[in-house]
Prior knowledge:
Blueprint: H1 5-24, H2 43-59, E1 73-79, E2 91-94, E3 97-106, E4 112-121, E5 131-136, E6 139-145, E7 153-158, E8 167-176, H3 185-189, E9 192-195, E10 201-204, H4 212-226, E11 230-233, H5 242-257, E12 264-267, E13 280-286, E14 291-296, E15 302-308, H6 318-323, E16 342-343, E17 352-354, E18 358-367, E19 378-387, E20 396-401, E21 404-410, E22 419-427, E23 434-443, E24 461-463, E25 468-470, E26 477-478, H7 483-487, E27 494-495, H8 506-515, H9 522-525, E28 530-534, H10 551-558, H11 585-607, H12 612-620, E29 624-629, E30 638-643, H13 649-659, E31 670-674, E32 679-682, E33 690-691, H14 700-710, H15 712-741
Parallel strand pairs: 11-12, 11-13, 13-15, 27-28, 28-30
Antiparallel strand pairs: 1-3, 1-10, 2-9, 3-8, 4-7, 4-9, 4-10, 5-6, 5-8, 14-15, 16-25, 17-24, 18-23, 19-22, 19-24, 19-25, 20-21, 20-23, 26-33, 29-30, 29-31, 31-32
Amino acid sequence: MRRFRPLLAAALLSLALPVAAFAQSGGIIPLPLDSDPSGGVSDSMIDQLNADRIEAEAHRGTYVEEIAVDPTVISPLRPIEARGRPAGSAIRFDGERRTLQFALFVPRPDQVRALRISTLSSINVLPERSHYRVWVNETMVGEGRLENFTSFGTVDFPMNAAAVLPGQNNVRIELVQYHRIYCGPEASFALWSDIDLANSGAVLASSEGISGQEGFLMGLAAAAATGSGIEIRGADGLGAYRDAWVSTITQRISAALGGDPIPFRFTEYWSVQGAARSAARITFLPSTANRLTFRVSGDGAQVMVVEFVPDERPHALPEFENILPRVADRAQPPLIDTMRPVAFSEFGFETTEVYDHYARIDTRFRLPDDWIVLTNDKAEIRLDYIFIEGLPDQSVLLVHINNENVRLLPMWRGGGELIEQFPVRFEARLLRAGINTLSFEVLVPGSPPDMPCPFNDTPILAIGQSSTLSVPYSPSMYLPDMHIAFAGLTPASVETNEMSARSFDDNDVVTLQAALSGGERPDAVALNTHLYLLALDDLGSVPLGGYQLSRRALEAALLHNDTAPAATGAEPAHALLRARERSDSGAALSRGWDWLKNGFQTALQWLQPRSGLLLEQWLERQNAQAVLLQLDPGRPNQLWMVRAPESDISAIASAIVAARTNTDGPRGQVSVLDRDGRWQNWTAPDRQPVLLEAVTLSNVRHVVGNVVSAMPIRYVAGLFFLALVSALFALRLVIATREHKQ
């Protein structure tokens, strides 16, 4: 122990000496006086010290400067009319002039700061003249230029609270476009502008206080604009009444909002937030009473909480029926009378003025389902119209019936005077039972065509609503066609079986049922229509009604391969695969017999068309995302639908909703929804009209005319056969008479 005392004393002395020196220097640390600033420390040691310091600083984390977050939110625009496009896509304005209507939901008018419009235009648009105007509740809020060509650009139009109503508001956007180089119909086809629905709408100061019924409506519009859909949670707890509860809520929402349907998807109570977060959600919670409450979730979604009594049927929720304003009705065109002049105003056409070098005006009306004219009877339009003087040469007005041109009216001569009741007669067989479209197409060449069009704010043509349409008489007859069953589809019409889940999951079925709520015809609903959802493996359950339809043909349409087929003249991979031409007499006789047989079958197909091979060949040329079938004429109230793998059910539902109000919907025996969202129809050439009333002296001529006109070649062949037999008898009579005289 004693030997450590000298060492301890030396250590204490070494510590005390620097402290004393520091005290004598007045608390200032003395600097070294030698010329080497490093004090004998090497460069490598300095680099190591700096590295340690920087790494330590990095371990403490990077400092992030606080950035002010924009608290504003957008209540998106909601298109009123169904476009037949899936939710989440931009809406397009094409042509020189167009106007569209939207719905806008505002929870609190005092929170509104501006109306934002996000646009993207074609490079052909001339920005100095092209513009758009916006009205809210018939009050103009601003005008903007179309000058965004590479990406969407936004413009905020200031709005005060007085111009906005709490809840639903009506927004109208009118757009005018000019081509920057050319003028005329061809130039008009190259003009378009898109509006981004997800980023266009009312700009609200913040999301604070946005809740309740109006907040939920705003969430519905946002879910439709972004395409994320509406989440449904807690549906598994509904038990045996799950389908009834879900159908009641989803169908009421879809019917009230109008426009394109909103997709629905089931999620768990507790789930990880994904990239496609929904702005609106429906949550079912068990309770002691049936009632509704509205909340805002932690992720910002507007939630409608549906409290239900377990193991009880769904009861009426009066507050739910009243919170959803009916934005637009999915109404079908009006039914018109036959055998009398019907004014255009009776089926919704109003006097229309045309300003553009190209314009197409479509108006729709409906004829009875038992109306058929296949003969040479005429229908007539009495047209009231006027156009200005001095239009360029070859300016024309075309009149179309169901996309078939029936008259060309020149407009480069005369003008300036009202033309009243101008007769336009056309074949009545161009009309059909159900929805028809009467179209007016205007084409005015540019003057000159290689310069931008001059500014024009005066109409060049007007078509009066006092014009009339006369449709001839038809006996009560029916041609097998799926349009009647399609018009009567309701949510209750959707049928599934144990194999449907291979192509349609629960989300798909609910979305499709909600899309079918609204727009049906009551008289067609009385037929108790059915829509069977099928998988390709269940194709055998489809009644074919004598037609030929194979799985191979359907797969060719639904699983379309875009790769080009191999050249027919290519050499085979192996010489043994090359077919050998036989030159013996037996082979020549066989080829001759095959030629005669094929010719005979072709002649029979011409005389009596059979639809088997024709249908399969037509299907193989299609590129479908869904196929509707109605092959059995004995089941006019039943439809079968098959969809392609990986197809979007919201796109299919949108196309169905849009088709229920126009003539471009499913017709005939097979209808294909192609990848562009258009319906392609196949009609059997051998379908026969069915008489639905007794034959009388007053209708026998029309009945026989329709039956004969449906398949004229067979009756021509029959008359030819009778004439041939009569000629043989006459020849025999002449020969017998000459023999008797001899």
